[in-house]
# Entry
Amino acid sequence: MMKNMGNETDLPAKKSKTWLWRNLKITWNCIGANNNSTHAIVLIHGFGACKEHWRHNQPVLGKTSICYAIDLIGFGDSSQPKARLEGDQPENGDFRYRFDSWAAQVTDFCREVVQKPVILIGNSIGGVIALRSSQLLEGSCSSVVLIDCAQRTMDDKRLNEQPKWMRWFRPWLKNLVRQRWLSENLFRNAANPRVIKRVLGQAYPSGKNIDEDLVQLLQKPSKRKGAQEAFRGFINLFDDYLAPQILADLQTPVHLIWGEKDPWEPIEEAKIWIRKFKCIRSLKIIPGAGHCPHDEAPEDVNKILLDLIQQIT
# Structure
């Protein structure tokens, strides 16, 4: 039973709200009055991030349409339930951290809270979630914008692209990362502020907008009791949706925005996607930017987004 715990309409300024979904707490905020605009914008963050990662975009987009940002289960201020891995016996209150689960969360949020046609904008794994959500929403999603969409090169379906030693090692790797002691130690290391800054240095090659606010908004959720559960669930996600699987049959128009120097999701694959899939209408490259151009180069990305929103609406 889903229940809206806050006023989802006519919010002139950003204010965090709570929504109960499948007995889990979902946190979200929005900027912009629920005016006569025909569409709402829904922002979906990437792995390890949260709704505040749209800090430089939401205020700008909210001037054109009501703009929502949501914390995915396991991240931000949303619930962080225990991870149930494939093959585990279900336990009360556990959660399968996978794309269908997150997409169900986003889809129900759009239907229950937003209640109007949406433009979904997702970064990294948020892009795959946006694609899957657009399928579930069918005609209620007018367009999807992917910002450096996750390519998931370690998925089993891409195993033939890996070196032979990795294919040989894969069964042992899967067994190893299932061990809770390992995932907890890996998580503690990843949540260290020094490590966060080092990773941000890779993700933001220009160094722009790497500030203490960013480090804190990424580290804060890691201090909560169940913070390691989403990490454990995700590193055990070896067989799930790949973006090309969804793009192959998708009727919803898709637009790509990509950081030229993304160290993890090479732009070369994005160039293949736009040639291969009819649903993709455009590819905009942000010079010098990395994996999160919406935060690293928000002026450039916001201009593109505003132009796309005007075209769509």
About this structure: The first helix runs from residue 58 to 61. Confidence is low (pLDDT under 50) at residues 1-13. Strands lie at 3-4, 17-21, 24-31, 40-44, 67-70, 118-123, 141-147, 254-259, 280-286.
